[in-house]
Amino acid sequence: MGDQAKLSVGGAENDYAVLKGSVGPDVIDIRKLYAQTGKFTFDPGFTSTASCESALTYIDGDEGVLLHRGYPIGQLAENSSFMETSYLLLNGELPSKDELTSFENTITRHTMLHEQLATFYRGFRRDAHPMAIMCGVVGALSAFYHDSTDISDPEHRKISSHRLIAKMPTIAAMAYKYSVGQPFVYPDNKLSYTGNFLRMTFGVPAEEYEVIPAVEKAMDRIFILHADHEQNASTSTVRLAGSSGANPFACIAAGIACLWGPAHGGANEAALNMLKEIGTPDRIQHYIDRAKDKNDPFRLMGFGHRVYKNYDPRATVMQSTVREVFDALKVNDPLFETALRLEEIALSDPYFAEKKLFPNVDFYSGIILSAIGFPTTMFTVLFALARTVGWVAQWNEMISDPGQKIGRPRQLYTGPTQRDYVPLDKR
Ligand code: CMC
Questions:
Q1: Model confidence over 191-213: pLDDT tens digits?
Q2: Mean pLDDT across 328-353
Q3: Which residues face 72 on adjacent strands?
Q4: Which H or E element spans position 19?
Q5: Over the range 4-39, which residues count as b (16 or more CB within 10 Å of their CB) and which as e?
Q6: Residues near 257 by beta carbon (within 8 Å), at least 6 away in sequence
Q7: What would be the CATH architecture of the domain defined by 95-403?
Q8: Per residue in 138-183, pLDDT tens?
Q9: Where, by residue number, is the active site (predicted)?
Q10: CB neighbours of 339 closer than 8 A, spacing ≥ 6?
Q11: Which of 299, 312, 358 is the best mutation target for the ligand 1 pocket, counting ligand atoms within 8 Å of the beta carbon and taking the most?
Q12: Catalytic residue among 220, 228, 333, 362
């Protein structure tokens, strides 16, 4: 028998198995708690609760470690491609040369959208936030691709996963094109996944679009950095939606909706807006003081993380990518200096040190994306595009698990107890 945890409730003691992962904290298996004690656990925000078993991604937040299928994010960002990392997340191992080529071909063949989807965009206002468009269009995919929505069939799951990964750049680029009033650009399957996305976003029919290799590489790396992040809010949303048997397109649309929030994927947009508002380094202290003031709702966007209590390893890569992109595009955004100075001031301030608040992935990403030419409203869309592979990999893992039950949290009820209905004329 492995380790056991004892819980004493109302004088009665019960044993609960302590489960061990391959690495990381052990977990106490309390699945029988309610049947044995008639009590639930209370953990809003899941700060101490593992919602599932997963073999995809591991984070050690104290040490600033992020591994995908065991491989450190720094090594993947340096040596891998987004397509290869996607294969790794979906299949568990790095592909051979042939496997990678075949995977890239499959994804490339699915990049086009059903032509009728183009008319869907026209229902949105031109000034609609592209994340609103993403939620709508991705949810609508299930109306166009119902031949791959039998979730009990592994082949259907595979096809819909490939479709989602492949079509997301096309959908995202079209959301951008629609907002600027330019014609949609069809995929060009000669280009890489990321090169194709850049061309569909920034190309126009009147001119030949040339993909700048350094920008393509930086963008691809940004996609790798966002590919998966274990049980974050949007991934948990995808799993919860999927646990009811909902189709994959609906589940990913739910994930996109959750990602949009400023505490999650929306932070990249909020972080750049904040840097713009701060403007010059001499104004930083005022914003640091505001972030520390309990009576002020202002927070340093791009700072802090539920899991990382150390430097987010993705932020390290992101920071070094800023210079690469600046050099390639021969630009220099003074906001980068403001960001570096803000980081320096915050990290030397006891408030941030005590609370272990460090820059996260979103702190520097906006500066790069802005230099490449994306408006801030597109930042979270790019996060969604890249995270789609993590979402589908996690969704697949969950559906493949025979022990999977519908996700159904309990609650601590604090509302009125039973009372009789009072007719309107007696109230
Ligand atoms: N600026 C100032 N104070 C902060 C910040 C911040 N960015 N983040 C946390 N704190 C303080 C917070 O006020 C609290 O203080 P106290 O204990 O005195 O009440 C303490 O630190 C703990 O914060 P929390 O909100 O209880 O922590 P959490 O784990 O629930 O929240 C977070 C994590 C990421 C939502 C939060 O740090 C935050 O709002 N950061 C800014 C938004 C952001 O950058 N989000 C992107 C996350 S990374 C990308 C992604 O995965 O989506």
A1: 999 999 999 999 999 999 999 99
A2: 94
A3: 67
A4: strand 12-19
A5: eeebeeeeeeeebbeeeeeeeeebbebeebeeeeee
A6: 135, 237
A7: Orthogonal Bundle (1.10)
A8: 999 999 988 888 999 999 999 999 999 999 999 999 999 999 999 9
A9: 305, 362
A10: 275, 363, 364, 367
A11: 299
A12: 362
Q: Is the CB of 366 under 6 A from ligand 1?
A: no
Alpha-carbon separation of residue 26 from 20, 41, 64, 124 (angstroms): 5, 17, 19, 48
Residue span(s) of the chain under CATH 1.10.580.10 come to 95-403
Q: Please check the confidence at residue 382 and state whether its pLDDT lies above 90.
A: yes
Query: For residue 357, what are its two tokens?
Result: 């608040």
- Domain at 4-50: CATH architecture: Single Sheet (2.20)
Q: 1 pLDDT exceeds 70?
A: no
Going by C-alpha positions, the residue among 256, 222, 223 that lies closest to residue 238 is 256
For the question of residue 362 being annotated catalytic, the response is: yes
What residue ranges of the chain are covered by domains with CATH 2.20.28.60? 4-50
In three-state secondary structure terms, 41 is: coil
Q: Which atom of ligand 1 is nearest to the CA of 383?
A: 52
